[in-house]
């Protein structure tokens, strides 16, 4: 098995976990569950982009993955700030 084939197989497994996370985002019983599933989607998406960058030889996908990582950190901060604001009232 060549490394590119292994990378594509790993990317496929990550896409399957992203599908499971999407189900949790839609039917999650609490907002925290939905946010954790959204973080799973973000992290898995970044991993898929990095695997595809290595497999296809497109270095621009690494930059896109870094931008997604920054957006994921901002979304966690916004969610946490929103939850803290709800607890005060």
Automatic annotation (TrEMBL):
What main location does UniProt list? membrane
| Cellular component GO terms, alphabetical | plasma membrane
Is the Transport keyword given for this protein?
yes
**Signal sequence annotation:** none
Presence of keyword Membrane: yes
Give the transmembrane region(s).
6-27, 39-58, 64-80
User: Which keywords belong to this entry?
Assistant: Cell membrane, Membrane, Transmembrane, Transmembrane helix, Transport
- PANTHER family reported in the protein's UniProt record: NA(+)/H(+) ANTIPORTER SUBUNIT F1 (PTHR34702), NA(+)_H(+) ANTIPORTER SUBUNIT F (PTHR34702:SF1)
Q: What family does the database annotate?
A: Belongs to the CPA3 antiporters (TC 2.A.63) subunit F family.
Question: What is the name of the protein in this document?
Answer: Multiple resistance and pH regulation protein F
According to its UniProt entry, this protein's organism is Halochromatium glycolicum
List the taxonomic lineage: Bacteria, Pseudomonadati, Pseudomonadota, Gammaproteobacteria, Chromatiales
């Amino acid at each position: 098995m060549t490394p590119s084939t292994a990378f594509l197989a790993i990317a496929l497994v990550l896409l399957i976990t992203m599908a499971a996370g999407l189900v949790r985002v839609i039917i999650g019983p609490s907002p925290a569950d939905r946010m954790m599933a959204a973080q799973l989607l973000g992290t898995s998406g970044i991993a898929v982009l990095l695997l595809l960058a290595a497999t296809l030889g497109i270095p621009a996908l690494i930059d896109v993955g870094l931008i997604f990582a920054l957006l994921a950190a901002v979304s966690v901060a916004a969610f946490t700030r929103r939850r803290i604001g709800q607890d005060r009232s």
